[in-house]
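2.7 Reproducibility. Because tokenized structures are sensitive to small changes in the input, we list the exact sequence used for methylmalonate-semialdehyde dehydrogenase (CoA acylating), including any N-terminal residues retained from the expression construct. No trimming or masking was applied before prediction.
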Amino acid sequence: MMNKIANFIDGNAVVSRASEWIDVTNPATNDLLGMVPMTPTDEIQGAIEQALSAQMHWKEVAISERARLMLRYQHLLKERHDEIATLLSKETGKTLADAKGDVWRGIEVVEQAANVASNMMGETVENVATDIDSYSLIQPLGVCCGITPFNFPAMIPLWMFPIAIAAGNAFILKPSEQVPLTAVRLAELFHEAGAPPSLLQVVHGGKVQVDFLLSHQAIQAVSFVGSVPTAQYIYQTATANHKRVQAFAGAKNHMVVMPDANKAQVINNLVGSSVGAAGQRCMAISVAVFVGSAKEWIVELAAEMAKIKPGLWDDPEVAYGPLISQQAKLRVVNLIESGKKQGAYCLLDGSDCMVEGAPQGNWLGPTLFSGVNTDMEIYQQEIFGPVLVCIEVGSLDDAIALVNANPYGNGTSIFTASGAAARKYQHQILVGQVGINVPIPVPLPFFSFTGWRGSFYGDLHAYGKQAVRFYTETKTVTARWFDDDIPDGPNLTIQLR
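Resulting structure tokens (single pass, no recycling of outputs):
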């Protein structure tokens, strides 16, 4: 009988009573790994009720104790780092090196969660009026929810629940039904680190289960990472149900290449940032904007990209793994065909890629287009595959105008030897995360992940100080005490007896 993947409820792996199950496959072989339940809403209701009860106790636990839980958890994650990465590789197809990076970037956020106390300090003003003081308190919201995507099964859940729980909340995690195994393992290790039962619950499912969470009155805040249409839906639905929402959506990230840049660094970084993780990351560089004579490097870029090969997760010689599903591959192949039909030059076509020993995998080789314009579908859509499109412009001003006209604002970078060009770019560009000679400028966890415009719906971003504010509320107290109520010495002595 095929393995039924359990929910994680009240500190235990619990097999659902679901009548509907979805196959979970290895994208490198399309072999069946198990079946994930479309969890009945009554089971989710029970998980939420248990989380509510757990949070009532947890919010009274000293913040130093909550921080120590995170220290124990990060220690355990480091001990089991390779184990988690191997599991992650098998369900996503990521290379082991990429999977290890996925886990490690999550661990860095857990370490930041251990520093939660300094981010939950309120403010005090003495004598706002005569003998009256005012001060603010930072308090948890209650039960929060996270809905996570397939492409980073360790990092993105770890963006969410450690900070939420360190701030005093309980958490319901609904991972992608395509990659449920890593999320369950993260929850098991969190319990092993000493977390009280029911503080973190993992429930599986699809749209029906998500809708139940978005409308449930006990859920106070929703964190989401995924596609643009789904992010818009999550944001609209959850806010209509009076919930706080952060919804991270798609992207079209540009790297601007100035003619004075280091050519070797440009080509090396363009290759890695465009095809790494099979291009399945919201911070991938998918558009190279060559300014002036820098366009002469496109031929050499094609030659270097042609050397890159996908393959199985445990092959140390390969650069990246398969796309997550056959449907995902078909979508990217169709976009590649649209680029050819609309007049772009396909310098490198990975559509017919095969990997020895895994003929059924969802493989796609590196693909490179030149002669692209902004009216083409391959420019307008987030491809989410190992595809890079090249655009040529005459000046830095032209490049800035092009990037700012794009509806997305997740990440961008500029490669240049000119400090003046770099400063102008970072100042004028309407994108939330900017790299200067750095291709994928994902901030470390003491900052926040700050996508803008069509890449983000909400106000407060993931991890860092903004995440603590997202998962908490501010209470302001105004206090007055009267001198006449101060007991004198004898009265105080009688009261103490």
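DSSP finds 16 helices and 22 strands in the chain.
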